[in-house]
Amino acid sequence: ELKIQNEKTNISKAINSLIKEYELNINELLICAEHTGHFGNKLIQSILDLEVNLWMESAYDILHSQGLKRGKNDKIDALRIAEYAKRFYDKANLYTPESKSVEILKRLDSERNQLVKDIAKYKKQLTQEEGFFDKKYFQEKTKRHNRLIKYTQKILKEVEEKVTRIIESDSAIKINMINITSIEGVGKNTALATIIATDNFTKFDNPRKFTCHAGCAPFRYESGSSINSKNKVSNRANKNLKRLFHMAALSTLRTKGELRQYFDRKVDEGKNKMSVINAIRGKLIHRIFAVVKENRPYQKIHQNSLV
């Protein structure tokens, strides 16, 4: 329950003092912390520098593992994390840092997404406000916003060029990008997001697990025989990945490819359209993992029809 500044020096001193005070063996020491985004980077780096085992856990899992709770502050949160770690230490998933290239790509991709949102925001304002303000004022505002849009687009281009340079400089990521984007419907943004989420396929080795993570695997929710619901994906899924794979699935329906034929066949059989699209998302993910595992571009399997 110590309270220290979020600086590497302070964190390291605090951990070393606890190790000395309680005569702890570093090799047998496990530190559990909850994910707090970039605010936890200094803590993570300090622990890794000390070569202490680190377990980063979801705040959601910690909170919902301990029943109904009331009240919240830093001291209570620290105690709850400690109780969680003591109870579930046998399920600890030790933290491994992302590769340097993936770490930078992750930051750049986040920056790129924010810039895209800003450009869309400025454009939407002009579209929605046209005709509702004094004409002269609106013209002046349009000029100001257009300058903002132009400048933001320039920054966006710089970020995208930086992303390209990093991909080109890392042979493993470059090869995976080439192989993944050879799949029908999968573009550069979807491929990059997948590489980032999997740490270039070192954190996920199973396409079924990643399908769940990306919100493309439906689950059944029912109780007894009187309460039923349609299969649906979990709300804990990665929303950005879900959106990207949804767009990828829709893009396959615009061409007369095998996935479009699959969609038409299933719909004709009476399947729900959204269920079929979700199945296409899953097929795309399985194809991505297949080309990465086999280290080759995607190749369609052609079957000779009997005459």
Descriptive notes:
The chain is built from twelve helices and two strands. By secondary structure, the chain is mainly alpha-helical. Helix 1 (8-21) packs across helix 2, helix 8 (188-198) runs antiparallel to helix 10 (239-252) and helix 11 runs antiparallel to helix 12. It has helices spanning 8-21, 41-49, 59-63, 74-88, 100-129, 135-169, 171-180, 188-198, 207-213, 239-252, 258-268, 273-294, and strands at 30-34, 53-57. A two-stranded parallel sheet has the order 1-2. The radius of gyration is 25 Å and the shape is globular. The mean pLDDT is 89.
What Rg, in angstroms, do the CA atoms define?
Answer: 25 Å
Low-confidence stretches: none
Form type: globular
Order of strands in the sheet with most strands: 1-2
End-to-end C-alpha gap: 77 Å
Question: What is the number of E strands?
Answer: 2
SSE class: mainly alpha
Mean pLDDT: 89
Please provide the ordered H/E string of secondary-structure elements: HEHEHHHHHHHHHH
Topology:
Blueprint (H helix, E strand, L loop, with lengths): L7 H14 L8 E5 L6 H9 L3 E5 L1 H5 L10 H15 L11 H30 L5 H35 L1 H10 L7 H11 L8 H7 L25 H14 L5 H11 L4 H22 L13
Parallel strand pairs: 1-2
